Fold each of these.
Amino acid sequence: MRRNATRRFAGSLLTALAVFGCRSAHTQRQRSPQTVEINRVRADDLARADGMTLDDALRQVRPDMLRPIAVERYAVTEMVRPSVYVDDRFVGGDDALRVIPIEDVVEVRLVRAFAARSLFGSSCPCAGGVLAVTTRARRVK
């Protein structure tokens, strides 16, 4: 009789663990809006900057987006800058930002290298990440 009670208790305990999981309240963190938006610059942020091009605005508003990162290839470390994609098309390196007017930009996202390879394909030149620029022309279509 005692053995049956022990089995029922163990079964109830396993059922409770299966239903509620092994998660506790401190392991379920909510993302703050700032964490989600950390790699994104919107048009209203760019409008506050002095300058005519996207390069000027990003240097004032978010210079960290233009900073090169260290990439190790074949035991050699080199500094690599992010590539620029405008409306999902490769346009070049960060020097391409000098010809994009601020008025045309809706948002700029910094996509890290690993995620950029999955978005733009394995042949993308994105070792330094990608600055993905969305323009107003893209939003209209």
Amino acid sequence: MITKRVLVADDSEAIREMLGSFLANLGYHTDLAADGEAAITSSSAPLRCGHLRSADAQCCGLAVLAQIKAVDPDVQVIILTGHATLETAIEALRLGAYEYQFKPVEDMEIFARLVERAYHHRSLLRETSSCWHSCKRPTRIWRMKSTGARASCVRPMNLCVISIG
């Protein structure tokens, strides 16, 4: 069985421990980080959740997000913040955050589903990447055009076909 690892980063030890133990009870192996630097250097966790605070809390969290995604673009990052603005939400999603949520987490069942969806999203990214790289050379297929109840060949194309879901 594959161990699902999650890094929980928060400047508040109580929140860090609470989220970590909650996810551990769900079967995740959790790593805890107290600051952005620890979150960046923890390369073992493919899913990271947290709130990173400094004098300029949002910029710090967004900078950490950008550095994490630069190291591993497939890492799924869930941002939890008590200081949400529309601008930082847009910027976080633009930088590759999987989700941007308000703190405190009020419904832990919804949070658990969010974490599972983020993990599933990462596995789909990995599967897609694996399929893409295993395509040694493009396969010649026919592009089809729908013409009512039947399909007809339009022209040949060289591409790798990947179908997910």
